[in-house]
């Protein structure tokens, strides 16, 4: 795996062996960013289930100012830290070593781009978006990108956001919510 485009484009990403994380493939990540961007003019990104950190690193590579990555798995945290170090721009990244729900309760400010790729997609995505909205963490121009198995059907609207785009790539489905 590697960073697809932008400032860090072409640099390799480490991933965790085994089934505890499901890294987004380069092909799906590239298609996802073409769908939502593909480049950004600043802003904050939040990745609640960081895995290898690839999505957040790609977003910063493509122009986001800073990223907050949340990961509870200790082995995945070590991979995230190695991948952040590879960027040589460590100050643009913060890794919170905790569960998503705890992170939401501790976060401050607003986020322009949010990635949700949880292990138990539908219920967790709905609960996470509702909690983020209730805590005032969604920027006015927020874009929430959810990656699920293609069989998962997400609601048309959750809290203050609704589906803007949805596309299937192989076994994965990408759903983008906006205000």
Automatic annotation (TrEMBL):
InterPro entries with a match to the protein in the record: DNA_methylase_N6_adenine_CS, RNA_MeTrfase_RsmD, SAM-dependent_MTases_sf
Region (Disordered): 1-23
Compositional bias segments (type: Basic and acidic residues): 14-23
Keywords of this entry: Methyltransferase, Transferase
EC primary class: transferase
Gene Ontology molecular function, alphabetical: 16S rRNA (guanine(966)-N(2))-methyltransferase activity
Lineage top rank: taxon: Bacteria
EC numbers on record: 2.1.1.171
Stored NCBIfam families: 16S rRNA (guanine(966)-N(2))-methyltransferase RsmD (TIGR00095)
Protein name: 16S rRNA (Guanine966-N2)-methyltransferase
Species name: Streptococcus loxodontisalivarius
